[in-house]
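Re: the 163-residue chain
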Amino acid sequence: MQGVLFGIPLTRWIRGTIEKMNRFGKRDIQSWRDYWLETYRELGGQSDESGSKGSPIHAAYGLWRLGRIKNANIPYQHKRIDFINQNYGKNAAYAVLALDLLENRQDARDKANLWHLVQDFYRRTTHEEPAISQQGAVTVAVALFVDRQIVTGQEQARLPRKK
């Protein structure tokens, strides 16, 4: 089922985590991990092992910190994939690549093809080998994209610039 990870609706999971981060004024990855697991449990998650998987945690955290999630109180930041990879990790890079592909390429709408495209772009932009299989980063990106929770590059281009 699209938009669900470990039996939990991803958008609600991510939104709940963001709400806690904003309420308590936190920006660090450890607080994100703690609130991520807490939100997972609140939404009915049973397995702390599933609720603590690093791939979706880092993908969602990276998208949030880069201002890619709507109404998250963080300005959109256009960063190069190598910067994202170095500062937020490969799962954040996979998620950003997936969003860029979903926004700009019709052939990316097929989930299996999307992962192959992400692997190819990751390899070409970072000169590193990507993971063999996606472990949640692309699932996070697709869920948010389908639920229209993403600030797209096109939307960002229409926003007035600060002087």
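The CA atoms of residues 151 and 157 lie 10 Å apart.
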